[in-house]
Model the fold of this input.
Amino acid sequence: MKKLALCVISIVLAHGAFAAETAQTVQTVQTVRVDRNAARFAAWDAEEASNPAPAETVLFVGSSTFTFWDSVHSLMAPYAVRNRGFGGSTMDSVLAHTNHFMRYRCTRVVVYEGENDMRRTNNTPSSFLAQCREFVAAMNAGGMQRDIYFMSIKTCPSRWNLFEKQSAANELLRIYAERTPRVHFCDINPVLLNDDYVPEPSLYKKDDVHLNEKGYALIAPIIKRALSGPE
Done:
């Protein structure tokens, strides 16, 4: 009996040590992520302090679709762009840094989020829309008048299983933009789908998630048309 008790105690202690080690590992990973973003935003703060973006500059806020857009300045010309993409971000990540984005004088903001949001099982199209609305309210607080341009969540080959969930979120965004002054919806998906109505593989990098230069060249005119206003 004593041997059994000792065995049970050993198992419990081992499990506790493993759980503590796991918790510490998770905390370390989270801290690294926070520090990575903290350094990124600190650098952006320093840049904005020394070289503030003019009001007519278009502020890009979003996830890795913006982070990896190396040709954004040439493809978006003649519009000047201040690119603030941070990979792996979600709409709640953007909300956590709203105070940073509110410091910019830019009166036009292009937002790309949703891909990472819709991958989370606890995120719904409705909760995503609520966060988008919260961002708009924050960016226009204090009498500021900004136009916010939400890009549609792009479909991609490796996340085709999320197409219906993404489409529902896009539809909510579209309706919201139609009903809300100074909010716009830029649907980029039509140029990314082929004749079979599936993502065209040649427009994506090898990871089948991120756009390549051919893909960026197709979505840039859509954003520029939205920025130019109604024809």
About this structure: Residues 4-33 have pLDDT under 50 and may be disordered. The longest helix spans residues 2-50. The radius of gyration is 21 Å. The chain has two domains: 1-51, 54-228.
